[in-house]
């Protein structure tokens, strides 16, 4: 009498573990992009993002970000407490200011980390994260051919594992997609050791909740950052 139930559970387990193999990594990425950017607007994105970063036990940082991909322009104006910094990359040319003045002492440059390396870091950071999942089509992005099935915080996901060419980056990333809507709901990264192996006690995971449509693109309204090693909350980016 129990044999049919036993076979049923074997079948159920097998179905769950092979569910993600009914879709290829390319198909999954294409469906995710169709969900977030149905009209292919990211390539010509020209818009502003107003973001508040809430950090535990620290004052919030408010950022006004301009991204103009066709004109190769990026600018972030960030205010925390009584200080405002501005970093600009205009067709590869960098400039920065403190409280609307480009005459900045060396001490303040160091204090507020005002330099071209930092400006380019912000440009890459914001255009990458708010350009996902479309940015996974960029050259140098290596997507594992296998779609994984994972459960995270009690919810099932399709997961893409992504690495990068050596000249692009060394971290290992995982992107979690809703298996019904194909919305991107989590991403996670780990550092690697000198041999290129994943360091499981490193990196962070980022939970995306709610959405805001900007220039026809569905972007995460809230991005909450946590350490992988202990689930400690680092901060939350809120798209206003």
From TrEMBL:
A Pfam family assignment: DUF6503
InterPro entries the UniProt entry points to: DUF6503 (IPR045444)
Species the sequence originates in: Seonamhaeicola maritimus
UniProt protein name: Uncharacterized protein
Top-level lineage group: Bacteria
């Amino acid at each position: 009498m129990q044999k049919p139930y036993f076979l049923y559970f074997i079948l159920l387990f097998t179905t769950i573990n092979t569910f993600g193999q009914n879709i290829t990594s390319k198909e999954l990425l294409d469906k995710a992009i169709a969900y977030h950017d149905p009209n292919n607007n990211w390539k010509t994105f020209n818009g502003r993002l107003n973001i508040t970063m809430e950090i535990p036990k620290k004052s919030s940082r408010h950022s006004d970000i301009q991204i103009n991909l066709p004109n190769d322009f990026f600018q972030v104006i960030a205010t925390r407490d009584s200080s405002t910094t501005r970093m600009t990359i205009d067709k590869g040319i960098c400039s920065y200011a403190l409280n609307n003045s480009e005459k900045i002492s060396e001490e303040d440059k160091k204090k507020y980390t005002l330099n071209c390396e930092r400006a380019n870091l912000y440009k890459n950071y914001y255009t990458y994260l708010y350009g996902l999942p479309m940015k996974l089509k960029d050259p140098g992005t290596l997507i594992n051919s296998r779609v994984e099935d994972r459960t995270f915080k009690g919810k099932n996901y399709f997961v893409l594992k992504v690495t990068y060419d050596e000249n692009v980056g060394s971290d290992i990333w995982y992107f979690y997609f809703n298996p019904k809507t194909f919305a991107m709901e989590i991403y996670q990264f780990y550092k690697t050791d000198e041999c290129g192996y994943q360091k499981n006690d490193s990196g962070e995971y980022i939970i995306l909740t709610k959405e805001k449509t900007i220039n026809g693109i569905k972007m995460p309204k809230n991005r909450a950052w946590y350490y992988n090693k202990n689930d400690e909350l680092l901060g939350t980016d809120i798209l206003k």
